[in-house]
């Protein structure tokens, strides 16, 4: 009798989920092509030349004030953005920023080394809950189906959010092609005509895949699509032979951000270098 481990069953189901090798999207930028913006931008950052926001209430931790430094651009080379992520920057639409709080360093960049990643028992359960979900990749394109899904998600998950939910606001926030990005669609059943239950936007370059945003159908919350999508996108990153999947900021004392530390091993950007955390 052949016995299989939970890990081997997970690995087999990953292979089955893809059916065929998922093709990495073609990049407009390559690490072999110099970016004329890169050096002037990095020099400006090193010189402290970026504008800093006024103090405002922190969106993650109560009774704290938040500030950030950043810039706005309509287009940025993906490889340059990778360098910025390794300096603690993230993007929201056309805004590239990093925390600049005088008395707090709670926002810690986190990434997953995909070759070493091993799902936990609870994460494998989430995978098994979604064996009926099909996954497709495409260039980000906003339509009525996605607008309605995003609006339901925002109302349920972030009812007090100042984020616009009208088509123009959603397009500006998620579907404006600032760097090389792809959309991952999750459907029950057929990948073209099945019920759309979740969408992820990812930034992709030769050295990294970065999670920009994920939204899902609140009626399907029991599926834990947030967990399932991270697992799937880690596996996509691995299949593309890209070393790291970036998850944004990990914030220890924030329930909506602390979950990122459950994907192990992971690496935290501390003191300007990536530090491995395995347990």
How do the helices and strands line up, and which of them pair or pack?
Blueprint: H1 6-18, H2 38-46, E1 56-57, E2 65-66, E3 68-72, H3 78-85, E4 90-92, E5 95-99, E6 108-113, H4 121-129, E7 133-138, H5 144-157, H6 167-174, E8 181-188, E9 195-204, E10 208-216, H7 225-239, E11 244-250, H8 255-258, E12 266-270, E13 273-277
Parallel strand pairs: 10-11
Antiparallel strand pairs: 1-2, 3-5, 4-5, 6-11, 6-12, 7-8, 8-9, 9-10, 12-13
Any overview of this molecule?
This protein is α+β, with helices and mostly antiparallel strands and 279 residues long. It is built from 8 helices and 13 strands. The strands form 3 sheets. It has an 8-stranded mixed β-sheet with strand order 7-8-9-10-11-6-12-13, with helices on both faces. It has a 3-stranded antiparallel β-sheet with strand order 3-5-4, covered by helices on one side. A hairpin with a 3-residue loop joins strand 9 (195-204) and strand 10. Helix 1 packs parallel to helix 4 (121-129). The longest helix has 15 residues, at 225-239. The two termini are 33 Å apart. Mean pLDDT is 90; it is low at 1-9.
SSE order, as H and E? HHEEEHEEEHEHHEEEHEHEE
Radius of gyration: 19 Å
How many individual β-strands?
Answer: 13
Number of domains: 2
The CATH topology of the largest domain turns out to be Aminopeptidase
Instruction: Return residue spans where pLDDT drops below 50 for at least 5 consecutive residues.
Output: 1-9
